Structures are given as C-alpha cells and as structure tokens.
Amino acid sequence: MCQRGVDVYNTLCDDCLRKLPRTEHHILRENNVEMLFNEINNHPRKHWDRPRFVRGGAWLHYNDDVVKVIHAAKFRERPELAEFLGRQAALEWQETGFFDDIDLIVPVPIHPRRLNERGYNQSEYICRGLTSVLNLPIDTTTLRRIKNTPKQSQLTDAERKTNVERAFQIPEPICWHKKHILLVDDVITTGATIRNCIKEITPIRSCRISVFSLVVAR
Ligand SMILES: [Zn+2]
C-alpha cells in the first residue's frame, strides 16, 4: 500500500496492516453481513434441526487501500496477499469465538475455466490463511461452480442477482450432512453470490452455515 519495499514473507508492512479499516463485526451484536443472510432461518425446517444460519461477518470495510490489495490478490498473481490477510483475520477474530464449532472451511468456487485462466482461486488462499491459525479442513470439491458468469464487479445490482442464479451445484450433498460450513469469499457486496451457494446448501439435512468475507463493500 505505501510502496515501501517489504520482506516478501510479510507482504504488508506493519503500518499498512494497522491502517486497514476493521469492521469489528466479531464483537458487534448485529452486523450488516449477518443481516444479508438471516432470512435463511425463516425457511421451513424440521423440528429437530437447529437454525441454518449461525453467524457472519467481514473483517474489513471497503476503501481505496483495501481495493488495491484485493485487486492485486485477485488479478495480479499475488494470491499470497489473500493468504496473509486471511491469517491476520483469523488471528484477530479467533479469541471471540467467531470460528468456534466450524467443521469445514469452504471457499466460494470460481468456474474451472476461470480457474484455468487465473491459475488460482483467491478465496481458497484466504481459506489457507484462516486454516494456518484455525487448523480446520478446507473443502474445495463439494460445492461446484457450474456457470461461468461475468465478473460481478462489472454489473448492476439487478444484473448481479440473475448473473449467479443456479451457478452452483452440490453433486454429493451427503458429505455435508450434520456439518457446520464456513463459506468464505473475498468481497461481499449485495450478497447474491453467497445467497446462491446457500440455496444449494439449505436442502442438506442438519447442515449449518456461517459466512466469512475479507471485505464488505457497503
Ligand atoms: Zn506499508
């Protein structure tokens, strides 16, 4: 961010790291990420099922510095930045119990064709950072992206919504039976992408969902 040369292992200097705008979602009673997905708990469920949506939060607010870092992580072959930020987030949020009783960490998948072009899924690197602290398994195979959609960032809100409809699939839902899944994304804007993942997950018996994003854009 400050363009000062830093140790490659650090990726951001301490000053820049401190400057990133924290949301403190992990200690608020309510936050705007949870409010995007709370409605899932109103869906009908069997009486023995616990509420489907457990908790959600984003580590950072959106500003010019954050955009610069996320953009580099995503499009300029700097996935280690995503890993670094995931690790920092886990270090800061772990103590408040945000990651308690999660069974699996699941990056929002990108389409195989885009994975081929870019060479990596930035959300998977966020997961690697998280798990370097939390020691939880990462599941990159159960949830699949079956539609290669245009980038959400280039679309209007209405277009974002239809863009990701039926974009995901879970061929073997049994894998997540009775599991508590942490869905991980880099940036949450309207929540349309995560909501469409959740649509595939809610039919799975006793599967609970939490959401973590590095950044919330509004
Ligand atoms: Zn710096």
What does this structure look like?
Helix 3 (64-75) crosses helix 4 and helix 4 (79-93) packs parallel to helix 6. This protein has helices spanning 14-19, 32-37, 64-75, 79-93, 112-118, 122-134, 157-163, 192-201, and strands at residues 53-61, 104-107, 144-145, 168-169, 180-188, 208-216. It has eight helices and six strands; from the N terminus they run ααβααβααβαββαβ. It is an alpha/beta fold and 218 residues long. The protein has one domain: 3-Layer(aba) Sandwich (Rossmann fold), CATH 3.40.50. The radius of gyration is 17 Å and the shape is globular. It binds zinc ion. Residues 1-2, 4, 13, 15-16 line the site of zinc ion. Zinc ion is lined by residues 1-2, 4, 13, 15-16.
Notable traits:
single chain, alpha/beta, Rossmann fold, 4-stranded parallel β-sheet, two-stranded antiparallel sheet, 8 helices, about 15% strand, binds zinc ion
SSE inventory with pairings:
Blueprint: H1 14-19, H2 32-37, E1 53-61, H3 64-75, H4 79-93, E2 104-107, H5 112-118, H6 122-134, E3 144-145, H7 157-163, E4 168-169, E5 180-188, H8 192-201, E6 208-216
Parallel strand pairs: 1-6, 2-5, 5-6
Antiparallel strand pairs: 3-4
Helix pairs in contact: 3-4, 4-6
The structure holds zinc ion.
The site of zinc ion has 6 residues, from helix 1.
